[in-house]
Amino acid sequence: MQLRILPYRFATTALWLLFVSLACLSAGVWAAESNDPLPSWSDGKTKQAIVSFVEKTTRQGSPGFVPENQRIATFDNDGTLWAEQPVYFQLIYALDQVKKMAPQHPEWKSEEPFASALKGDMEKLMASGKEGLMKIIAATHADMTADEFSENVSQWLKTARHPKTNRPYNEMIYQPMLELLDYLRANGFKTFIVSGGGIDFMRVFAEQTYGIPPDQVVGSSLKAEYKVRNGKPEIVKLADINLVNDKEGKPVGIHRYIGQRPLFAAGNSDGDFQMLEWTTAGKGPRFGLLLHHTDDKREWAYDRKSHIGRLEKGLDQAKDRGWTVIDMQQDWNQVFPVATP
Amino acid sequence: MQLRILPYRFATTALWLLFVSLACLSAGVWAAESNDPLPSWSDGKTKQAIVSFVEKTTRQGSPGFVPENQRIATFDNDGTLWAEQPVYFQLIYALDQVKKMAPQHPEWKSEEPFASALKGDMEKLMASGKEGLMKIIAATHADMTADEFSENVSQWLKTARHPKTNRPYNEMIYQPMLELLDYLRANGFKTFIVSGGGIDFMRVFAEQTYGIPPDQVVGSSLKAEYKVRNGKPEIVKLADINLVNDKEGKPVGIHRYIGQRPLFAAGNSDGDFQMLEWTTAGKGPRFGLLLHHTDDKREWAYDRKSHIGRLEKGLDQAKDRGWTVIDMQQDWNQVFPVATP
């Protein structure tokens, strides 16, 4: 909890403030609260487990001490750092791009999966399966330079708004997770995103939004090629999958990009199961963290039967594997950051 | 130049030292020399070009100022950070492994390319071409876990010695380049290796040798898969190429791993041409650096006709493209670090 600066207009207020301060100081509460690195996390066993782990692994002389160059923390993105309902935001981006590009593609009116995408018929779109999705990806993510793609995403983030909250998508992020990222970094951890989402998509906003630079973002990707066109060197994105960084693809992505096993891994769905399994199978202290979406008032409540971010195996095995499960409703006293005015 | 601590036995020596110190101080030489971040670089236009670039891009208020999060520096490894003669050290590793594994593979005595590898017949080995090389790679770099591979490389580095100098391979590194890496990092640059060499091979020594952590190493790679065997999660290296990080593969590797265009790129062969081209085609100040091996006394002299590290296009175009070429013989007053006793 941040200490609010109270108006200092009346002597009585000043006096009251002084009393409260003294009372807090004597109880040690002031110091504890103002230094709390995780103010949006309710006091309880989840927060305590995180803090204990960080203290244990970073305190010189502690039996669980881990040198700074091995303090790797990986975070899933969709449903872990930002929301993923009603559908993955990158899919919303793709559909918005289809709409934007439609005037140049009159044939899409009768051609699937574009016809369903343009009508907003999600059920029929999903029925087009992997092949259909790949056509949407090819049309909206490939056959353009990497710079053009980044520019498109950047423009979209400025104008697109979440259907439920009307906030920009990069404000649909979890305040407690921002604090956790900061807390880990302040303790010498190097923080990475390891997500099934597109690497080039996330890199557009990850640094500004999460403080995670482009080279610390691992995600799914398309192949690319280097071309010099009219004397101008370019990276061109191809309509051909390079890596699906999900499920058993996550430890592979971690190996490929990070090159060492994480000390700490956080996710929210069974797509993160193998990342947590790989992480916590390492020697010495390791931390596996799962975010359980239990809050249908402030966010959404979903798990075993959800079409997005299904969490079943993780819930069943978390206890046996020693993973910590965040109960969003109980453990977070704030979900999203206060809106920028 | 490092200031040597002179024996302090005689008063005359002490007096002389004092005089020299005073003389240096009054001329500003002492201060300049003891603060020189690049002491193994001879004073001259190469060193000056590097220092000017770093000062221009890092001085607040300079028209060429670049924010710290965009200060990306990429270095080739073979022939740029460490030597590459008589052949790439990773090939020597592979051949050493073939010899080590031979007792378990009696069929190799008559099976190419292993027979030539075991006899040390490099010419015949090379004549086996890509297909032959791929067989050597498959036998020595695949069908094992990533951990097993790292352990093998680590063991090899401890015992293998360079045929000419009898030094461990990870001491066949260029002292001036170590200073350049340190100098760039001290000025807020993030340093990466971008090499045609194997990513898993380089990651074993890059941090200790160059101060470059595993996640900042980009190289060629094999595909890998995640498997849980007898309850133990493992990353298994497969005999299938994932990325050839050479020539036009280097900008692709940079895009894939680093996600932004470098500000500074250093290489030594035409395999680095596209990396320098991509780097220096960016907006604002950029730096392209090529190491020309001109020193057959302290190292090797080779360029246009070499079978390893051929440098032809780079030499022809460096001037027009504004790239800086290091003349090893002229520009470096020391090549390798002083041997550890």
Automatic annotation (TrEMBL), chains A, B:
It catalyses: O-phospho-L-serine + H2O = L-serine + phosphate; O-phospho-D-serine + H2O = D-serine + phosphate. Pfam families: HAD. GO terms for cellular component: cytoplasm. One of its GO terms (molecular function) is L-phosphoserine phosphatase activity. Pathway: Amino-acid biosynthesis; L-serine biosynthesis; L-serine from 3-phospho-D-glycerate: step 3/3. It is an enzyme of class 3 (hydrolase). The keyword Amino-acid biosynthesis applies. Its EC number is 3.1.3.3. Residues 1-31 form the signal peptide. Coiled coil: none annotated. This is phosphoserine phosphatase.
